[in-house]
Amino acid sequence: YEVTMLSLFILTFIFWALAAIDVRRNGQRDLERKYWHKHDPTLIAEGLFCLATIMAFFKLLFVCQLDYNLGPLQMSLGKMIKDVTKFFAIFSLIILAFAA
């Protein structure tokens, strides 16, 4: 897990460097994002950075479970989210049943 997260961060920085080289070489600094190629290094770097950041936060949540104060709070929050999800499922079922 950690190797994957760190490799995603490293790939992010590599793609950012490739994007900087691409801008210097082609000089398309002011080109709007909607005209970028779908495999532009900046877009790939942002996607990889997003995945790596999500993985880092999940690792932080795992570390928080070991804390004396934050661990029980996180466990109770997880159980509350499950209960709220069940409530919204039943609520949406009732609303859809009587909405027609």
Automatic annotation (TrEMBL):
Keywords: Ion channel, Ion transport, Membrane, Transmembrane, Transmembrane helix, Transport
InterPro entries, alphabetized: TRPC_channel
Keyword Cytoplasm: no
Gene Ontology biological-process annotations: regulation of cytosolic calcium ion concentration
Keyword Disulfide bond included in the entry's annotation: no
Gene Ontology terms for molecular function: inositol 1,4,5 trisphosphate binding; store-operated calcium channel activity
Membrane-crossing residue ranges in chain numbering: 6-23, 43-63, 83-99
GO CC terms in record: cation channel complex; plasma membrane
Protein name: Ion transport domain-containing protein
Record organism: Bracon brevicornis
